[in-house]
Design goal:
Radius of gyration: 19 Å
Number of helices: 12
Helix content: 40-55%
Distance between the termini: 40 Å
Low-confidence stretches: none
Order of helices and strands: HHHHHEHEEHEHEEEHEEHHH
Length: 299
């Protein structure tokens, strides 16, 4: 952590020179997950030419380098700098709910610098507790480093196994919660919904919707754009006033629709290097057998 903090004091301009070198090494020299990236982009944008696909891929690797150095900068970034570099729009959609005692579920994807979204406590009413789901890493050293970085602006990092008990505890205490869910990972076979996403039949996590319904939470999407290098605009778009009142799966469907539109605006900022579609619907059917249809009928 000492080394990370030391590196975090390097000026942004020099950090981005380091990022450019990392991108060149990753794309041309070691070809980090290049086949996965090209395949994901080709399948997701069948209307684009090979030249266009490789152009997006090169921009993605440049952004991946930026994501790494920007996350390191988060270790020592001041409130003033963060407010200048991450502009928040339509925060009222969250604070209005909190002021009335309602919890809020924030849906976001691996798009833009999602680590910087941990600065939300700077903008949220102090009536609420801000939380994000945390996946403990096997490497304990990196786990401690990421934990400290993600709590730099006082967000609560909560392990997935503890999220529901924690939110229930806060609800009983009369404390509204504002919780971020990155829900675009590749789930296991405990799937309750498949939908079309970027030209793929995609299995999705419905846990965030289940929790949102239980809390009667307002659900919002965190739309991220990057007007220039090192600067972001985070705009909140309402999915529903109360997830409990929505038909099952509707909140998840709306989230993925908004996420896809966000990705299509500037594809290079999504995490194309992860194997998002490694489990097909056919594999799901084979795994569950006669229970497959029942699994897809409820949350």
């Amino acid at each position: 952590m000492f080394l990370i903090r030391l590196l975090s004091f390097i000026p942004f301009r020099l950090m981005y020179l380091i990022s450019d070198m990392l991108a060149l090494i990753a794309f041309y020299l070691i070809k980090y997950r290049k086949k996965v990236v090209i395949t994901n982009l080709t399948d997701s944008f069948p209307e684009k030419s090979e030249k266009e696909i490789y152009g997006i891929a090169r921009k993605f690797y440049r952004f991946l380098g930026d994501y790494i150095v920007e996350t390191i900068k988060l270790a020592s970034m001041s409130e003033k700098t963060m407010r200048r570099r991450m502009r928040i729009e339509n925060i009222e959609v969250i604070n209005d709910a909190v002021d009335s005692g309602q919890s809020v579920s924030i849906y976001l994807g691996h798009y833009g610098n999602w680590e910087w979204v941990s600065s939300l406590p700077l903008h949220i009413s102090d009536k609420a507790k801000c939380a994000q789901i945390y996946h403990p890493l096997e490497n304990k050293s990196f786990d401690r480093i990421l934990y400290k970085i993600r709590t730099h602006f006082k967000a609560h990092n909560i392990a997935m196994a503890d999220i529901l008990p924690t939110l229930i505890k806060w609800k009983k205490e009369g404390i509204p919660s504002v919780t971020g869910y990155i829900a675009d990972q590749a789930p296991g076979f405990n799937i309750h919904l498949f939908l079309d996403f970027l030209h793929h039949e995609t299995g999705v996590y419905t846990g965030p919707e289940r929790i949102s319904k239980f809390l009667g939470a307002r659900a919002v999407y965190a739309h991220i754009s990057r007007p220039q290098r090192g600067y972001y605009i985070l705009r909140f778009e309402k999915i529903t006033d109360n997830a409990k009142q929505e038909p099952i799966f509707e909140t998840s469907r709306k989230y993925f629709d908004l996420l896809q539109k966000n990705i299509e605006e500037a594809p290079q900022y999504w995490l194309w290097s992860h194997r998002r579609w490694k489990r097909s619907h056919a594999q799901f059917n084979e795994f569950h057998g006669d229970r497959a249809e029942e699994m897809l009928s409820h949350l």
